[in-house]
Amino acid sequence: MPATPKAATAEAPAPKAPRTPRKTDGREAILRAAERLFAEHGFEGCSLRAVADLAKVNQGMIHYFFKSKDALFLEAYMRGGQPLVDERMRLLDAEEALQEDRPIGLERLIEIFLTPAVALALSGARGRNFLRMQAHLQLDGTRFGSKLRSSLYDDSSRRFVRAFARSLPGLSQEQVAWRFIFVLGTYQYVLADTGRLEVISDGASNGREFDKALREMIPFLAAGMRAAGPA
């Protein structure tokens, strides 16, 4: 009887070499650290050394990737800011197409404006970090802060002001602009995660129930937008 051939011995897979950290890993670590520290301390209160320490990189790597603190803040901010604006415009475009030539209902228009920001707050720590950065930016009176606000928000803000003016034909352009600013101030404070709601409600309310915050803000802001002007 012919000998049965021996089964080939399976070779053990060669052990994988440990992954060498890529430069892009360091870049992402820097951006995440910057988002957190800019959210906590604002632009002026955050140092590049603190970012480097939190990201566990040397400070030279920050200069290699971003060149300056301004450029680092800009990129960290735009990672949340540009998608926020884009989603607002997408929702507004879709609603205007649906309504054709009719004004958008006021509550629906407020919902369109607020929902992308609330979604960021609900998305986790990074989304909340952006919203706190946004709150800091609104108080930044420097040329850098003004230029960033203008470049990112001016076009979309004007679109929304025009849409609100159509929904509120009894108000002047000036009144609509003022009330839009009140909308901005309200939602930015509510979503900034300051912990004040828990304090003033003696623990009865949770400021991180952002979906509930949206439901509370819409009728409140609509009533304010509709209110008669000052005598």
The percent of residues in helical segments reads over 70%
Secondary structure tally: strands: 0
Which residues sit in consecutive blocks of at least 5 with pLDDT less than 50?
A: 4-10, 17-21
Which radius of gyration do the C-alpha atoms yield? 25 Å
Folded structure, characterized:
This protein is an all-alpha fold. The protein has a domain at 78-226: Orthogonal Bundle (Tetracycline Repressor, domain 2). Helices cover 72% and strands 0% of the residues. The chain has 10 helices and no strands. The chain has helices at residues 23-45, 48-55, 59-66, 69-99, 106-122, 125-138, 143-167, 173-190, 196-200, 210-226. Mean pLDDT is 90; it is low at 4-10 and 17-21.
Topology:
Layout: H1 23-45, H2 48-55, H3 59-66, H4 69-99, H5 106-122, H6 125-138, H7 143-167, H8 173-190, H9 196-200, H10 210-226
Helix pairs in contact: 1-2, 1-4, 1-6, 4-5, 4-6, 4-7, 5-6, 5-10, 7-8, 8-10
Structural features:
single chain, 10 helices, globular, 231 residues, Tetracycline Repressor, domain 2
What's the quick description here?
The protein has 231 residues and is mostly helical.
